[in-house]
């Protein structure tokens, strides 16, 4: 019988990508670093490829490791879906509030909104809450299909056929590794950006859609590399693969640490609005969704 990779080890590998180092990933998973190191060594033996570069300055992901991280995310998402489904079967009821958010919103804004939402319901019976993550296209599809009560997206404009309201603003940032030639000039024009192959998110992501729209009438060059998470793009850029345009929310820590350098783009506006979306009547009848929307809009 085939031996499958351990889910906890895959979760640790993804945490290394998301938090930038083995030690930080171990802390995020609640694991001691020696145990995390052994777990990564076992995972490498299991998959048969090196996943980490190990050095005195710390461990970073290899190219193969970056690819395995992206596949691992899908495995972990499926595992979480399985767990949620089994939990729902045990309880016999579905959560009365279902929310889905695009990745940038889900990683950097939604946790705080949900925490304040729970605080607002303290002292009373808190409604159940189910949260899913996808790209902007996924969120819009689920909203139109009636699969969720409330969605959060990062696309550049109001979607047709749905109710929407702006809940936050964001700006996209062109970022490069510290040793990239652009890091010396700190500024390029929009035509040079359009002509440059970038490390990008997958088609359908709000970041990519917003960039394409902001660059009009210019046509952006085909991507150098497509990855399905902000963390993977960030790691790839810092490793020197190429430039990327990402949400400031997603890379503010790397900019502050100096592992990524912000490049000003002349002659283009890279600001965007983050929106909540929902189907049905303009005035929502789901009180739990209305409460969460009010918290998001007031943040």
From TrEMBL:
Residues 5-62 form the HTH lysR-type domain. Keywords: DNA-binding, Transcription, Transcription regulation. The keyword Transcription regulation applies. Belongs to the LysR transcriptional regulatory family. This is LysR family transcriptional regulator. It comes from Dermacoccus abyssi.
